[in-house]
Amino acid sequence: xxxIHLSDLHLGKRLNEFSLTEDQQYxxxxxxxxxxxxxxxxxIIAGDVYDKSVPSAxxxxxxxxxxxxxxxxxxxxxxxxxxHDSPERIAFASRIMDLSGIHMSPVYCGRIEPVRLEDEFxxxxxxxxxxxxxxxxxRFFDGSExxxxxxxxxxxxxxxxxxxxxxxxxxxxxFVTGARRSESEEISVGGSDNVDADVFxxxxxxxxxxxxxxxxxxxETIRYSGTPLKYSFSEAKDRKSVTxxxxxxxxxxxxxxxxxxxxxxxxxxxxxxxxxxxRSFYENTTWQEDYTHIVLTDEDDxxxxxxxxxxxxxxxxxxxxDNMRTRSNAAVxxxxxxxxxxxxxxxxxxxxxxxxxxxxxxxAEYIRDLIEKTxxxxx
Length: 379
Prior knowledge:
By secondary structure, this protein is of the alpha/beta class. The protein folds into 3 domains: 2-259, 4-Layer Sandwich (Purple Acid Phosphatase, chain A, domain 2); 266-326, no CATH class; 332-377, no CATH class. 28% of the residues lie in helices and 24% in strands. It has 12 helices and 19 strands. The protein has helices spanning 21-38, 57-72, 87-91, 94-98, 134-138, 149-158, 273-276, 279-282, 305-309, 324-327, 343-355, 361-377; strands at residues 2-6, 14-15, 18-19, 42-46, 76-80, 102-104, 115-119, 122-128, 167-173, 175-176, 194-195, 205-209, 215-217, 219-224, 241-247, 253-259, 266-271, 291-296, 315-321. The strands form 5 sheets. A 6-stranded mixed sheet has the order 6-5-4-1-15-16. A 6-stranded mixed sheet has the order 7-8-9-12-14-13, with no helix packed on it. Strands 17-18-19 form a 3-stranded parallel sheet. Strand 13 (215-217) and strand 14 form a beta hairpin. Helix 1 packs parallel to helix 2 (57-72) and helix 11 (343-355) crosses helix 12.
């Protein structure tokens, strides 16, 4: 049995105030093309369908179109709610949708019944575990010690009555200890949301969501598919993909990635303004259309740098400086000799502390002239 594993679509997301609607529609169309080429039996979407618990009408429309495309291909589709989703909204009309092969995770109620599929090797049970917190589970199991996220997931999985002699798949949306995170994920202080990987050890494959970089955790069969698009510049060097999982006879599982190519990439560029605006630097690249973060290394600030750079890099999202001034950790402290110094000397000391370098000759001349005019005006 062949599965396509997706997660963390984050439909409706805005990045640095840029709408990603067009990019998300484009990548979902590309995923449909991969599904047509791979001809899977089922698709798993492991949570964070939307970026907000109350998604925009536009985001709902995009997902509706995607589900309609999947349903038209007579696929079994499994969708669970993630920490960004409203479990009640994801569960809406789930019993009706089951009839079309679209299975939406219900709100967690203390028990999870699997959906059972058949192929030439026998039965495959698919369990859908929505994102849960310890409080979500504890209310149904008062007598159990449920203090951590591992306790919660272990308890929820323990109630599933998994028949380990047969093949079993779970879709879950949790943070497995040791997974590599990125800036676009919600981080819990101190890693309090960690879940031990061994809680998924009873399953032939664990289709995980929540972590945005594609990766396996301890075992090839406990895996995050990652996001289909890059949602922070910390992911700029990631290679986005969908995961293809094939279950043959019990104990035989193969996992591989199929790469995704976005409409616009996320790119980080670094250098002096004069170099970054040379035609020879950016021509024959996609950088003019890509979403861009530029780090300028000029020692002096460039007036209207964002406006000027956007004439070349049309989707410039973010600009930073990395120079002696920004790298300086010097603190401005009191000076016992301040009373004996001239206003120019005091300003020169202050400038050097703030910028980690003395003023240039032109700057020094300008400040001297400004101080003289100020003093003359005050007489």
